[in-house]
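Summary for the steering committee. The consortium agreed at its last meeting that each partner would contribute one worked example illustrating the joint modelling workflow. Our contribution is presented below. We chose a case with several input lines so that the handling of multiple components could be demonstrated. No manual editing was applied between input and output; the record is shown as generated.
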Amino acid sequence: MNGAFHEATVTLVDGMHFTGQTGADGFAIHLDAAEEHGGRGLGGSPVKMVLVALAGCTAMDVLSILRKKRENVTGLVVNVRGERAEEHPKVYTRLEIEYRVTGRGVSPAAVERAITLSIDRYCPVAGMLKQAAPITTRYQIVEAA
Amino acid sequence: MNGAFHEATVTLVDGMHFTGQTGADGFAIHLDAAEEHGGRGLGGSPVKMVLVALAGCTAMDVLSILRKKRENVTGLVVNVRGERAEEHPKVYTRLEIEYRVTGRGVSPAAVERAITLSIDRYCPVAGMLKQAAPITTRYQIVEAA
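What follows is the complete predicted structure of the assembly.
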């Protein structure tokens, strides 16, 4: 590979338990299969990591864009649901993202714009997954106490 | 959603630091942006989680298939490299997977077959990502000491 690249490595511990690491940043996570697939549940499921990646990627985009616009955001929760195909390889066939933005006087138009920018332009995880499954979004704004 | 689905949620801690959780299994991971993107490196990068997901998914498939074939596998390391597009959303444009299988008398044909079955049929992460970027694989077999 000649251009910029990212790297990750998983290493078997035992059973179906692996540790995962991303490049040189020293970050490590545990992965394991569920008990019905020969694992002992000692870590996350790889396919669900895709949903965490999508949620985290778009959450960081939206937060960053709203902060740049000086919106007073005090909390953000992003939930992703992926509907699975019945047949192997059981890909996600539909992805629903829900953003719950907490803050003071946060503009709905700014939230909508931030979500659109993330899904259509900035989030690489969405950019890849939408080739495989349609992504829908919705949001709610909660006034901070 | 009416069919089977998976779910993940990320929750802002502070800065660009989020905790991620998958469904009801209690598994939690930390996500954060790099310092140049307003984070403090307190967790993994969401887009790199996609590579961890791909590596873990195909590693579990290959291990499971080789064990079913009674191959004597004692170790497995799977490395994934993703070449990034220069333009936003900076998706991975090419994915290279390298499998390093350690064991006693492991059959190269069995390893090749296990990899093909994973990428072409069983691994949902590969099933989704190959819609967005070509995936190439290679392997080496190391005789256990």
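The mean pLDDT of chain B is 95. The first strand of chain B starts at residue 5 and ends at 14.
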